[in-house]
Design brief:
With 149 residues, this protein is an alpha+beta fold. It is 22% helix and 33% strand. It has 2 domains: 99 residues, no CATH class; 36 residues, no CATH class.
């Protein structure tokens, strides 16, 4: 019997943003991937972590662990993350957990490829369903036979 890894559950604040720490408020949602352009805003220190702060064009601030920022710096030479106009990064992002803390991180090359494959399969399944007069209520949960164990 193999154990399946459960999706990361992110603690959500009342305003809908992901919290850096789970304060036990009871609101959670599954981890997700998003495409965004973020710029360097600064850094902060917690009790057990140092964080890099990135912000989007609407002012939302995202924290990155130092190790994620280090990986981002190494990835800027590759196609999915551009390092332009000072410290501006465009790419796909998701969340991770270290200890009791949550922070943003860039997708790795392999994750980016896997994500593109999933989107392609989902779009193909949605198109096939639509052509038969059906709609997909949760297209992000589409799996093909080759994905099943």
């Amino acid at each position: 019997m193999t154990l399946k890894k459960q999706p990361l559950q992110l603690p959500i604040a009342d305003d809908g943003t992901v919290m850096h720490y789970d304060y036990g408020r009871g609101k959670y949602k599954d981890n997700f991937v998003f495409l965004s352009t973020l710029h360097y805003k600064g850094y902060s220190r917690g009790r057990s972590s140092a964080l890099i702060q990135l912000a989007d064009s609407q002012g939302a601030v995202y924290n990155l662990f130092m190790s994620s920022f280090d990986e981002l710096m190494k990835m800027t030479n590759r196609h999915q993350y551009s390092f332009t106009h000072g410290a501006v990064f465009t790419g796909r992002w998701t969340y991770c957990k270290k200890g009791q803390n949550f922070a943003l991180r860039p997708l790795t090359d392999q994750e980016d490829e896997d994500y593109n494959d999933l989107v392609t399969k989902t779009n193909q399944a949605a198109f096939a369903a639509a052509s038969q007069g059906h709609t997909l209520k949760e297209p992000w949960n589409i799996r093909t036979d080759s994905d099943r164990e």
